[in-house]
Amino acid sequence: MSPLPTYDSMIPEAGLRAALALDRPRIISEIGASGLKGRGGAGFPTAVKWNFAAAAQADKKFVICNADEGEPGTFKDRVILQEHADLVFEGMTVAGKAVGAHEGILFLRGEYTYLRGHLEAVLAGRRDRNLLGKGILGSGLDFDIRIFMGAGAYICGEETALIEALEGFRGEPRNRPPFPVNTGFLGRPSIVNNVETLAWAACILGRGADWFRSVGTEKSTGRKIFSVSGDCARPGVYEFPMGLTVAELLKEVGGEDAKAAQIGGAAGQCVPAKDFGRSIAFEDIPTGGSIIVLGPHRDMLDVLHNFLEFFVDESCGQCAPCRLGNTKLLEGLEMLRNGTCSMAYLKELCDLGGTMQVASKCGLGQSSPNAFLSVVENFREELMGRIPTHA
User: Fold this and answer.
1) Band of the pLDDT at 3, cuts 50, 70, 90?
2) Which helix (H) or strand (E) holds 312?
């Protein structure tokens, strides 16, 4: 597999220098030609988001980097910020020119407080080199970045909840429309991009759209950074082309004997061994980068219990399907453990999960029953042994 294209392997500030030589439409056109989609998991085309914000009319616009990395099993953004912060800030500056913003905000996860000193030092160094501030590198671009500390809430990974927290309110999702690209932070057009997305944006401007499209699939171009944990010989942070199969990934990390892989974190899909030939790509199995390998000895009810406790704790409580639904799924799971859950009630729980997927207000609530539903679908025999035979 390809090695991580570290910042050291890039020509320093090549992406920023290229962007400064282009007008705003051509920057967005280059990102569009690359096919870059959001690396946080949603997979929304980055160029479309930037174009909406660029077209909006306002006295101020904002570039927001979502570094509120809270999905269980995800830690690749932390590594990118530790080792390649310049690349992320370069991408934010490129985005600032593309949409017409003069201010960038890094929303940093509360648990990553220890990174703040390092990141502030990187920002100070960029100001000293005129890579931030007034007239960047002799151009007419004024752009600077500040850091905002999150409070450790999972829900703030959702972009509108993040903006609410930035404005000093409780982190809860907003109704849509309007969308952040025209009514975001302080009511101004704002783009919210993941740490990895912004780092790739800088690479694309530096190396070109064709370089990025040279790997991946037609609908999922480029490379992706993955956080791999669980029952494998070589856990860690990896870079793979989009479109590789689950089996290929497991071979690289030493997890060939896995009974399942949880792809996309607690809110993702539990993929059984019979489906390891499927591809990790937006058109098949999308992911923000979390891969949790589940070995042959893992009790799937224990895995689900862990995930559902997390969602019960982290639901913001704003909408009933998420607030009550996750609690009912956890109660049902404990009934399964105790052998007191009937087949009829298990079906009702699956129907509830389906309702949560369509009726929850935000993407986090909509995805919270995914693991439950996929485990019931793929490991029914393991669950059946705990259901009373008289049910």
Assistant:
1) very low
2) helix 300-314
- Do 36 and 23 meet the contact criterion of CB atoms below 8 Å apart? no
pLDDT tens profile 10-67:
777 999 999 999 999 999 999 999 999 999 888 999 999 999 999 999 999 999 999 9
Q: Which residue has the tokens 């792809």?
A: 263
Residue in 72, 89, 90, 71 with CA at minimum distance from that of residue 17: 90
Rg (CA), the chain: 22
Q: What is the pLDDT of residues 156-206, one digit of tens each?
A: 999 999 999 999 999 999 998 999 999 999 999 999 999 999 999 999 999
pLDDT in tens, 203-258: 999 999 999 999 999 999 999 999 999 999 999 999 999 999 999 999 999 999 99
Residue 128 has pLDDT above 60, yes or no: yes
Pairing between strand 236-241 and 223-230? antiparallel
Q: Following DSSP, what letter does each residue of 203-240 receive, concatenated?
A: HHHHH-HHHHHTSB-SSSBSEEEEEEEESSSS-EEEEE
Is the CB of residue 214 less than 8 Å from the CB of residue 276? no
Burial level of 324, CB count in 10 A (0-12/13-18/19+)?
middle
Question: Rounded to two decimals, what is the model's pTM?
Answer: 0.94
Can you give 54-100 as a three-state secondary structure string?
Answer: HHCCCCCCEEEEEECCCCCCCCHHHHHHHHCHHHHHHHHHHHHHHHC
CA–CA distances in Å: residue 82 to residues 105, 119, 148, 338:
17, 8, 17, 44
Whole-number Å distance between alpha carbons of 218 and 228: 25
Please tell me the distance from the alpha carbon of residue 220 to that of residue 222, in angstroms, as a whole number.
7
How far is residue 237's CA from residue 214's CA, in Å, rounded to a whole number?
Answer: 22
